[in-house]
Amino acid sequence: MLEHRNDEFLNFRHFAWPDSGGHAYRWVHVGWFTLTAPDAGDHEVLEALVAHERFRNAHAGGGVEPHGTRHGPYWLENVTAASYEPTTTTAALDVLTAWATRYDPLPDALAQALASPHERVLPPPPPPTATAHHLRDLGQGGHDWGGVHDEFHEFVSVDRVTATVALMVSADD
Q1: Cis peptide upstream of residue 126 (ω within 30 degrees of 0)
Q2: Can you tell me the mean pLDDT for 127-150?
Q3: What domain of life does the native source organism fall in (predicted)?
Q4: Into how many domains does the chain fold?
Q5: Higher confidence at residue 145 or residue 55?
Q6: Gap between the Cα atoms of 54 and 75, Å rounded
Q7: Distance between CA atoms of 75 and 17, rounded to whole angstroms?
Q8: What per-residue confidence (pLDDT) applies to 48?
Q9: Contacts 24+ apart (CB under 8 A), 54-58
Q10: What confidence score (pLDDT) does residue 50 get?
């Protein structure tokens, strides 16, 4: 149902900040997938995403681990399609903006770089063809070193017109 296309990674450290620590070790990772079953419901798409090998990523520098047991700060077994809640593009962008500007205003070059994947993952409202989902806080579902992320935000968009699924993780470590 999902075929991995490519990944994008944006590291805040690669931009000039007034304060040398302004980047706060933040980054954004987007995984792009082709949806080969555009008639599938969102729940089925989320199930396929969670089961996909590319989902086995602790997002702590090691990349995808085909037999991995972690996803972000959580044990993989605790993340299911039901772990996602529907959201709006506006709500998702509010979360991401608050996270990205938490310490300092963004350097202009970073703001421009962030706009591209955010607009493609979470198109400006209203998203006529896409649905958006937010991975809710799983609380006690965290793994042994899951607290390495101060904040961890994950959004999935499903666009049936373009047959695209995007998995966007914004975090710090």
Answers
A1: yes
A2: 76
A3: Bacteria
A4: 1
A5: 55
A6: 15
A7: 34
A8: 98
A9: 54/4, 54/167, 55/79, 55/167, 58/143
A10: 97
DSSP secondary structure string for all residues of the chain: -EEEEEEEEEEGGGS--SSTTTTTTEEEEEEEEEES-TTS-HHHHHHHHHHSGGG-B-SSSS-B-TT--EETTEEGGG--GGGEEEE-HHHHHHHHHHHHTSSSPPPHHHHHHHHHHHHHHSPSSS-SSEEEEEEPP-GGGB-TTGGG-S-EEEEEEEETTTTEEEEEEEEE-
Domain of 9 in residue numbering reads as 2-172
d(CA 32, CA 157): 10
pLDDT tens by residue, 56-81: 988 887 889 989 898 988 999 999 99
Tokens of 97: 């903006």
Q: What is the CATH number of the domain that holds 38?
A: 3.40.1000.50
Owner of token pair 């996803």: 71
Per-residue pLDDT band at 31 (split at 50, 70, 90): very high
pLDDT in tens, 82-133: 999 999 878 888 898 899 888 888 898 888 888 776 566 655 554 567 899 9
Length of the chain: 173
